[in-house]
Amino acid sequence: MVFIGVRFHESRETVKAKIITKVIAKESDLLLSVVKNGVAKLLKREGKDPTDKAVDAAIKRIESITTNTTDPGACDLLDFIGEPDSTLKALNGADTPILTDGIDILLPKEIIDVDVSTEPLQKKQKTCAFAAMMGKNDKCVKYLQYVEDLDKEQHIDEQIKQMMYGYLEDIGLGYRDDKQEAKLKSNTTKIKQVLCFVQNYWKVLLRAEFPHLPAGSDIDFSSSKFISELTTMTRMGSKKPPQISSSVISDNITVMSNLRWSDFAVPVFKDALVIVRDEINLICALLQRHKDSLDGKCSSMRQHRSTPTPGKKSHRGTVAAFEKSLNLVQLDDNEFHVVIDSAKKRNRPKGRLGGFAACVAAAIKKVFSDLRHKEDYSPTFLSDEEIGLNNYAELEGFDVVNAATRANWRAKFRRELNYGIESMMIHVYGKLNPGTNDPDSLFVWKVPFIHNAQHAGRVAKAINECKEMAPKKMSLEAMKHTDTILKGITDLSAEARAAVRNFLYLGDPDPDDKIADEYVDFVLHIAAGNPVEESMLRDRRQGNSRGGKGIDATTYQPFWDCCKEVLLPEARVEERRHSDTMYASAAHSIPNLVKQVTDLLTEKVSSGKLEKMPPIPSLEWVRLQFIPNNSFAKIAAKFTGHLGVMRGVQSRTLRKEHIDQHWVNAFVRYHLEWMVELKGSGFGEIAFFGQDDKSKIPIGDEVHVSTGVRANNKGIVPANANNLKALDHDFCLGKGIASVTLFSNIPSSIAGSFFVGGEEGEGQIFVTCRDAVFDGSEIFDHCAQLIDVVRSRGVTPTVLVLQTDGGPDHSLKRVAVKLALLALFRKLDIDRLIVLRCAPNGSAANFVERSMSVLNLPLAHASLKRAGVPEWARRLFSSCNSMKQLRDAAAKVDKEREDAAKSIPTLRARLNAAELYALVPECADKIFEGVEEASGEGKKRVVDLIRSMAGLTHNAATDVAGAIALPSGRVQVVHNETLQISVLQSKLKAAEEIASRNLEEEWSRSMSAPLNDISRRFSDLTTGGRPVVVRDRVPREDVELLYEELKKIDSHYNSNCTNKEHLSTVPLLTDFFKVHAVTTPYSLDLIKCSNNSCCGDLKTPEQFRDLALQRQPTPIMNPKRKKHFYSRREAIGMFSGNDAALTDFSDLPSYKNEGEKTKAQRDQEMTKVLKLKSWDGKKVRSIVSCFHCGKRRCIYSPTDEKYYSGSTALQQELESVSHRYSCGDLIFEDGSEMSKVIVQKLNLTCETQIEKGYYHNEDRSLKLKPICIHCGESGTAGSFLLGQKELRERNLTGGFKCFPICVECHGSGKKVVKGKTKDQLAARAERSNATN
Fold first, then answer.
1. Cα 159 from Cα 229, distance rounded (Å)
2. For helices 883-927 and 979-995, what crossing angle results, to 10°?
């Protein structure tokens, strides 16, 4: 029951009601009943007898019934009094809120004062008045008349006006009084203006030449009388320009949508209004279609309606989550279709989400993630499993989810779904079953933002598919619910439950003949009321662990035993487990654990240890054999703890958004849209790759060190270990590099996946593991590796797009990088190479960066250590504290090896001579053997003669073994003739041992074991159903081939040409770049020229050539959309053919120095607070190089003492971000204590000059070599780097002390940067030299 407020007014101008009363009614009551009760109360209050005759007489004199009398546009409900279905519920709506606001009745007082009992109206007069009031007397209707001026030719608007007047008369829409006439003329004029607009922009809006109608369009224009009549009219005047702004179209749509027809809401005009509204809706749909194509997004299902059609029933079967959506279309009772085309603002309370809400949010995230990998217009049924209800039930330990919980969950899910998600347009079809506990039917699918001509048809097809699938899906869902209930309350096997389910829903326990006969009989016996064979009831305890007690305690016991061998190192002794990698978690996930155990069981079966392969349990059953992390949780009762392990997390960057990030995002999107368009046109010879190095992986020197990967999942550890423990050293020499190459998927729409693309995509991850010390990242290696991946993948692109970060090995500011990319372009012989790099600190936006989270899985919960090395190498490694020291030590060992190798021949010769010298006495003894007369003196002469003839000499000092002081004061010298031989033998052995040393090889051998283990773990991963491919490092010969490609262009090139200083030696390469390349700070675009002798023939088919070789303009701000750039389509339309637009950096923030003023104020305040004297060069204590541009930036400190006290913290902070400092980063943020010790300038970008404080200052201990103040390059003074002397010789100083500048920067027009003080004599001398 509801109380309806009834207010009686004497005139429309009266704001305050004369009489107000309340009427008790039901929502199902007719409007007439409420009005009668209200009028009866009014008559009674006025002292009249409320007889049926008096009430009816008063009702017939009512002038209007609205919900707001003072609103002239309010919908008049008087016409619905006599309708049999005009209930309060049906009439209640947004424009007519009867149930909440009540009704206003306009009933003049003089009508009430008439005594109908004494002065009855004549029957004829009464009938005529009533007919006229209700608009049922056609003789009272008049029509608009057009008067043609025959003296002059009609303009287009006069033609449309004449057409509309005649058309309105044909359909019967006219007027009965002056007010209706004025309103009809006003509405007709507005429609005429819009039709003139459509006719003038016919080609743009209808996509056909005037006066032709397009064929095969998504809108049936032939059904429109207005459109058809326009084709018969003659154009006058000049044509309008083809461009139309979105705002102009919006204005026309607003005009059509705001037309008021409430004055014509009478039965005689009812049918005519329906026809006119259909015409208006079609014109609005035409305008909206073009507006959506301009805006880059579309809501073609949006309804452009004016006031709701009187008499049309309002359906209320839509769920609360969608009923307020502007894109909602009610298809039928309890059936709807809604478009969710943007993410709404979430007004959530602050704080963490509860368990229920968090689970729903996770389910929504999964649904959106799955949608991204599906085809457009492909509906997905949202079952309980899809929306995460089953996972929530498992988490909470529910065996059966009751109806109330299911209803709450789905209601919450629908509300979250209606928020939508950015970068994806979603359609939802739903059918509810209100009043029951049955689950609702909900389907979702995604569509592209930019719609083609087939969009409407494909949406309609998807809706029809949903309608056909809904009964089947709902039946399957109901069957699943039944199966869940049976599983929770009985011990029936899966086949027995299937038989019961089939019997309940299909009437046949085995409709497909797939279930064993005993289960069919089991169900039939139950149905017949016969006794049941107890052996049919499965004993599920056989699948349980039972704590591992008893004979044949569990079916899966062999599997559990192997699990312990894999998980617990002490439970298994095998050589392959004793590698140089110690895993705190032997399996990084439960699926990985099952895979390892299955492989181990297969080995045992092959070796004969097991007779047959034991059964493998499900992943969920394996999980339940763990020890729960929270023993007090309700679900912990399901865990058995049989395996004695639990899941735990191992206990163990300078990051900010660059000002150019928005610009770079827009520029990258231009290229992504271009790739989608190119591939969608049928061109399949385009490839999209990404390259990046994963952050360095720490590898312990003598102990196992954590990999440093912060895991989002939990590892698997023994139960007696509360957490995973491994050393977490910041300073270990060993570092591994995982160089990643991503073969990216190119989707069919911009909203698709540019990563691997799921199972239907073609993307794949390629990884190469190498040592960071002696095999670091180098651009030519990256290019050679990319060529290897291209060939191994079997693709032969003619257009290749490469996305990288801006690190030293990919920075487009470096000469070596540009040359390597040119060599890649030539080696692959492609028509076009595009290289896109991210903004500083923006590598997270690169698609290859998504590979890192995948590669983190096997590295989480792992610790690594190098293999053993010889003692001499171990001592050298221990003495090194950095990779540079290690490289220096290796170079020193190489030098020692060369010296030792040179000394070996000399030592061998000396040893041979010494040994021969010692053998001569033995030879003499043999000569005099048997000669008794030979004296000792004679033998000595013979020995000396032989030694003299052989040229053998001897230094007696080398035989001295020692000396003894005698009491007489004399010294007795002790000789040993073999001493020299033994010394030489020792020296030779030591030289040979040093000559065999190679520190680099020893290091590589010690690093190979952990790197091989990392590679093996990577190869176990899959993405999108395709394995992660681990490739060997390309041989050095492949890099040499890239050098050869550059030598073909300029024979003077060699591998040492890496800096700007060397460009003067390779002028042909420089000229090649000028002709073939377009360079921006964040891209490099190389295209073959038309000269066959230079680049050869183009391989791209001619029909695709224009689009394939289309260069994208740089982003330019759209003045009509604040802080937004032009879309690619707008930019191409505006700047196509304008080469200057390819390098227009007018809206690049780093070039505009946005935010410079605020940062400069901060820097000025810091100098005052810390007394740095305007960043005086005396306060420079150290420097740090930018990771992206390579420029050196100064680190200041007020005093040496403060700097030395914070130097360790500085080193640790830089190593924590792998030395990835970027210009403008603060190593220690303002507000921290260290920010007052280690001080930096904030107002820096990669385009900023080198700080003047960098340069030589006589009063400080830090001495730095001179570099160019503009680019930071160093080189030979005089020939490349122009210092004070060279600048004075060229008369460029003007008497000032100037900062170094390189010849490249000076030649490009950059100015010489001068100091503050001026030497007038030097300036005069320069002027004199210039005049001479």
1. 10
2. 150
Q: Can you name the residues that pair with 66 across neighbouring β-strands?
A: 104
CA pair distance 820, 1043, nearest whole angstrom: 8
Question: Given the structure tokens 């006969």, which residue do they identify?
Answer: 517
Strand pairing report for 862-864 and 335-340: unpaired
* Sequence-separated (6 or more) residues with CB below 8 Å from residue 335: 317, 430, 431
Sort strands 1301-1302 and 1281-1282 into parallel, antiparallel or unpaired.
antiparallel
Sign of the CA dihedral 1040, 1043, 1049, 1052? negative
| β-bridge mates for residue 765, sequence order | 742
Question: Residue 693 has which token pair?
Answer: 């190095």
Query: How does residue 834 score in pLDDT terms, banded at 50, 70 and 90?
Result: very high
Strands 764-771, 1029-1030: pairing is parallel
Q: Are 772 and 737 in contact (CB under 8 A)?
A: yes
Cis peptide before 211 (omega within 30 of 0): yes
Name the nearest CA neighbour of 1251 among 1318, 1157, 1184, 1204. Answer: 1184
pTM for this entry: 0.50
Q: What is the pLDDT of residues 684-725, one digit of tens each?
A: 899 999 999 887 888 887 777 776 665 545 555 555 544 444
3-state secondary structure of 275: helix
Of 532-541, 849-858, 915-924, which range is least confident?
532-541
DSSP character string of 1116-1152: -B-TTSTT-BPPHHHHHHHHTT-GGGGG--TT-HHHH
For the record, the structure tokens of 1310 come out as 């950059």
**With DSSP H G I counted as helix, E B as strand and the rest as coil, what are the percentages for the chain, rounded to 5?**
45, 15, 40
Collapsing DSSP states into helix, strand and coil, what is residue 1044? helix
User: Are the C-beta atoms of residues 1067 and 1280 closer than 8 Å to each other?
Assistant: no
The tokens describing 103, both together, are 């009704």
pLDDT digit string (tens) for 79-101? Answer: 777 777 788 887 887 777 888 78
pLDDT bucket at 69, cuts 50 / 70 / 90: low
Bridge-partner residues for 865, per DSSP? 700
Helix (H, G, I), strand (E, B) or coil at 635: helix
Residue 312: which of 280, 265, 268, 276 has the closest Cα?
265
